Amino acid sequence: MIQDFFSRIENNLYVEILAGLGPIVISVFLFLSKEKKRQIDLSLLFSFVVLVYFYEFLAIYVLVDKQFNASVHQLIGDTDFKGWNLWVTNFFNFHLSKILLLIYLHQLIYSQTKKRIILVLIWTFVAVCTIVQVFGWYPLYDFQPPIYFLGNASLIFGCGLYFIDVISEEKHLEVDLIKNWNFWIVTLILFQSALSFLSDIAFDYLVFNDLDLYFFFNYISMVLYLLLFIFIGLYFFLEVRKSKNKLIQNAA
Length: 252
What we know:
Blueprint: H1 2-10, H2 13-30, H3 34-37, H4 40-64, H5 66-76, H6 86-108, H7 112-134, H8 145-168, H9 181-201, H10 203-209, H11 211-251
Helix pairs in contact: 1-4, 2-4, 2-11, 4-6, 6-7, 6-8, 7-8, 8-9, 9-11, 10-11
Transmembrane segments: 13-32, 44-64, 84-105, 117-140, 146-164, 184-208, 214-238
Keywords: Membrane, Transmembrane, Transmembrane helix
């Protein structure tokens, strides 16, 4: 089982790179001061990194440990077990990670009106995820197109609200936009969400008419996710460096 698990990782370049990036980003965060670790945007980004790192490897593990996978399937559904790992990506990626990123956007926005809109998006998304699961319309172990659509659409709309907030709220002007890592991270979130949104909308057409383009969209989406990890890691690193420079200055 262990050999099969690692062989699946070795055959997946995206997961291999993620396996290297994840521990580095997590380790850099641990070097942050206690004050910085309590900073909401940093803690949310750290939670996102840990979540993605966790579910990517869990998705591989459940393909190897079929007994565990089958037992979870029995808890969440009453159909025959087909060996899929969709419940992992559905719950942790398309549900939890979207909610976490929406909360992150909510923390970055200063306008109270826009904050309330983000809260409406979050609670609407949570309600829809819960309703479709409770009524069994789109089970957790199967494809959930409405959830994919709503999650990506909410993030695109939320990123748009953030950018409007950036140009309309004076508090954002206090920080150099070029040096604002949250700005670049949100930009990557927007690009990745927009690409996933287009891919999901055109899924039926691409799968049956242009499979190469569908895989191209997926590869670009993976690259953007890895870039997101890198940018988050750089943000953590620069915050660690700032804290050390302050300590040196205070000691001098």
